[in-house]
Write a structure and sequence with these properties.
Chain lengths: 429, 431
């Protein structure tokens, strides 16, 4: 076995534990052994997403075409002699990958011995092969993916919102890029980005389920070579606190208007939100607009929302967004009601009893989410990339105070931080 | 899971399946009411799970009910309408954390099970009728649900193709009912439908978790026994009438960027026929994995599509192939899909491809018990069949399926209808 340093992190409340391995290659590995499960899940990810089309190397700023991280994800599946799916076909693993705003992740789930599938994963992600021919071949496939996304009202309503909210931050750019931007992608650009971002010091591996740390180490020791220095820095974007515009509309073939009301979180540099404010955000949203809230009942009774209504907070390096989303015959009326509810909560303060109930609910739902091995793997990667401790969110939820929520409210959800994005039915002016 | 599966009969047509498992942090209770899917009753039955989910005599107020669920550690209750074969399935589900994880050791799971029982049998009524205000809200939401089908184009296109293939059959009836049917619902009609459903539905209850389920099964047995049970027959062998040979085509125009093409095939093989398992393997080989014939050729080799895949409904015996493609590439994509089918029907398949598909399906079966949602979904599929097959048993049987058996079912795959959703400049027209 290698000189890897193993640390076991135990969560007393749930009896769950995971092992952090600081591997000599420079990459941290997380293993969450789940006795009794038949399946296991592995995710190998790099801190490289759509927002990284602008980055700094040695003080020099570089910009690459929108959608390149996603394009790279597609192309990495193809090696010189055979594609990764063909290799997974031999193990029966179910494999996939995704690119988000701030990461690219390659994953699989399987049953039985995980090692053959893990070997495939670690091999193909470390073995890029791009030629003019293979890059050109992918254009048709990704162009169809982009067209499919352009027809998705649920996706358009989000991207229109982000464009309305952000002046400079690349979160406003579609993850898949555009038909024009992907046409600029070349093998050289792909190799350039690969070499910058697919450095093990910028990556992590998480494995959960029917697996042991020794099994993972056996494969990792064989396939992970010590990584060189990682010099690249995510560009810090001087994003103004206010939004670009308060309202944006697009017409599409939909039955009734869809809306996203977004509030910009005042992100500081590229640091992500810590566990306690993250838990506070979830509780605050439940108090304001959850199914137990007065607002939800009122909007339902007034015929302004349906069960598609929901809210969430998400963040990443340099961005954070509060969302209130749904379908409504009158999105402006819903937005006005949400603004009013926020203002009223500021005036009245947070009710202790309602707070305790919402906190209980958050703790319970976090606990329930640990059933799913895929979710366990994803939590480990997210927490690490966002600088949070494993189980930190769960503990923060259980220990949350009303003051934590009040502090979050004091800094957020102001009208000047808000944009409303609407997809309206065609011909419904 | 190696424990024997025992589906206990609580009363005529009501079964209770307990799947004890100490791996999970949660306890889940699912009540599934199976009814024939018919246009005349679809609307009045479809609204029920949503109305029942709103509250019960103990918590008649929606907000108060949801506050109680928060106190019970974010327990969830949901009402859903599903379709299995030609049955409309009304579902009420509840899940909560297992008592072991309650911060103060409260008996959470029993309280949640009791809440679900209350919702089903003791709804909040006024003068023995569902309340008008509740009905109005749920009527509107159900109408919006029916109408919003058009929002997701892939799903919309698939539904249109299903309707084309199964025109005049129960399968083509919308599980949520019709716009006109929902608009016309009255409190009396809905209340009568609720009573009728409790007396006549085929019921499968599934309990998953680490707590003793005896008290729960006893409570449901007592509640159902209060009705004069006369369970309906839900067909387990859906009608697959012979069609005239003519292929049905429908093209619809809409303001979309990408064209959707759905090919609808009939194969007439349904559960519990032994061949249904061969058909599942055939489907995986044909178009349900990233190393299937359709993925490798239509997507990877020809770069025509981002997605091009097949799905087999083993409770109805139809197979759909759907893809998103440029309109001027439609013929090319269609020819290649049909060429791949002919290769499969001719047995021109490598052993490696067959074994890959087999491994993929075995992985899928072997993972079923690792999530409560996939596990309950698996057993609900067997609720109307004579016997349960466990995922482990299904994986064992799959190991024995031969290429000849796969080819035999592939030969029954017959193209019945082609639905195309194509782009237009502005507006939409119907053919």
């Amino acid at each position: 076995m290698s000189e890897a340093v193993k640390t076991t992190i135990v969560n007393q409340r749930t009896g769950e534990s995971c092992i952090r391995i600081d591997h000599p290659s420079g990459m941290p590995i997380f293993v969450w052994e789940k006795p009794g499960y038949k399946s296991s899940y592995a995710v190998f990810a790099t801190k490289y997403g759509s927002i990284d089309n602008i980055f700094d190397i040695g003080g020099q700023r570089t910009e690459v075409p929108a959608g390149i991280a996603h394009y790279l994800e597609h192309k990495l599946f193809e090696n010189e002699d055979c594609d990764a799916f063909a290799q997974y076909a031999k193990t029966g693993a179910s494999a996939n990958a995704y690119t988000s705003f701030d990461r690219t992740a390659y994953l699989f789930s399987c049953t039985g011995d995980i090692r053959p599938s893990l070997k495939i994963l670690l091999n193909f992600v470390q073995d890029p092969y791009f030629t003019a021919e293979t890059v050109a071949k992918e254009q048709g496939i990704i162009a169809q993916e982009i067209q499919m996304c352009n027809d998705s009202p649920a996706r358009c309503v989000l991207y229109n919102l982000l464009e309305a909210m952000y002046h400079l931050h690349p979160i406003k750019i579609d993850i898949a890029g555009t038909l024009e931007s992907i046409a600029e992608i070349t093998p050289e650009l792909l190799y350039g980005c690969y070499n910058q971002f697919y450095n093990l010091r910028n990556m992590a591996l998480a494995v959960a389920g029917n697996v042991t740390a020794d099994q993972v180490l056996e494969i990792a020791d064989k396939l992970l070579k010590p990584a060189g220095e990682f010099k690249l820095e995510r560009a810090v974007i001087a994003e103004p606190p206010e939004v670009v515009k308060a309202r944006v509309e697009q017409a599409m073939p939909v039955a009734a208007p869809l809306f996203y009301l977004g509030f910009k979180y005042p992100a500081a540099g590229n640091a992500c939100v810590e566990a306690t404010p993250m838990a506070a955000a979830a509780v605050l949203l439940e108090l304001l607009a959850g199914k137990s809230s007065a607002l939800y009942a009122r909007l339902m009774a007034e015929g302004l929302i349906n069960p598609s209504f929901g809210s969430e907070f998400f963040d990443g390096p340099g961005y954070g967004v509060w969302l209130f989303a749904g379908e409504s015959r009158d999105p402006d009326a819903v937005a006005a009601a949400v603004h009013q509810e926020i203002a009223q909560l500021r005036r009245d303060g947070i009710d202790e009893e309602l707070f305790a109930e919402a906190r209980n609910a958050l703790y319970g739902r976090m606990t329930a989410s640990l059933n799913d091995v895929e979710n366990c793997g994803d939590i480990l990667i997210s927490d690490y990339f966002y600088g949070r401790e494993p189980f930190g969110y769960l503990d923060a939820a259980a220990a949350l105070t009303v003051n934590d929520v009040a502090a979050m409210l004091a800094e957020n959800l102001y009208p000047e931080q808000a944009s409303l994005s609407i997809i309206k039915p065609i011909g419904n002016d | 899971m190696t424990l024997p599966i025992h589906n206990q009969t609580l009363c005529e047509g009501v079964k209770f399946l307990s799947l004890p498992d100490d791996r999970f942090k949660t306890v889940c209770l699912t009540v599934a009411l199976f009814l024939p899917l018919e246009e005349a009753t679809a609307s009045e039955q479809a609204i029920l799970p949503f109305l029942l989910r709103r509250g019960c005599a103990a918590y008649p107020d929606f907000t108060a009910l949801n506050r109680q669920l928060n106190r019970l550690y974010g327990a969830r209750v949901s009402g859903e309408v599903s379709r299995i074969g030609e049955s409309q399935v009304l579902l009420l589900r509840a899940s909560s954390i297992d008592d072991r994880y309650a911060l103060d050791g409260e008996p959470v799971s029993a309280a949640v099970a009791e809440l679900l029982r209350g919702m089903l049998f003791e709804p909040a009524l006024e003068n023995d009728l569902f309340r008008e205000a509740d009905i109005e809200q749920e009527r509107r939401c159900l109408l919006e649900e029916i109408e919003s089908e058009i929002n997701e184009k892939r799903l919309y296109a698939r539904h249109q193709c299903e309707k084309l293939v199964c025109e005049g059959e129960r399968y083509a009836v919308n599980r949520y009912g019709t716009v006109d049917g929902v608009k016309a619902l009255t409190a009396r009609q809905i209340t009568d439908a609720w009573k009728r459903v409790l007396a006549t539905a085929r019921v499968q209850i599934i309990y998953q978790g680490n707590q003793d389920s005896a008290a729960i099964s006893a409570a449901f047995a007592a509640a159902f026994n209060a009705f004069e049970r006369a369970p309906v027959t839900c067909g387990t062998e859906p009608a697959m009438p012979q069609r005239d040979a003519e292929l049905k085509n429908r093209t619809e125009e809409m303001a979309v960027n990408q064209c959707k093409m759905v090919l609808g095939f009939r194969l007439g093989i349904t559960e519990p026929a032994k061949q249904a398992l061969s058909a599942r393997l055939m489907n995986a080989l044909f178009g349900a994995t990233p190393y299937s014939m359709l993925f490798k050729n239509v997507r990877e080799k020809m770069s025509l599509c981002y997605y091009c895949s097949s799905t087999y409904d083993r409770f109805k015996g139809i197979l759909l192939v759907d893809c998103g493609v440029e309109y001027d590439m439609i013929d090319k994509a269609r020819s290649e899909i049909l060429r791949q089918l002919r290769l499969l029907q001719g047995g021109i398949v490598t052993d490696e491809d067959l074994e890959s598909a087999r491994r993929a399906v075995i992985t899928q079966f072997s993972s079923v018990d690792d999530l409560q949602s996939t596990q309950s979904g698996w057993y609900l599929g067997y609720a109307l069949l004579p016997d349960f097959v466990t995922p482990v048993q299904a994986a064992d049987h799959l190991a024995d399926v031969t290429l000849a058996e796969v080819v035999a079912v592939a030969k029954k795959v017959t193209l019945d209808a082609v639905y195309i959703l194509k782009g237009t400049e502005g507006g939409e027209t119907d053919e």
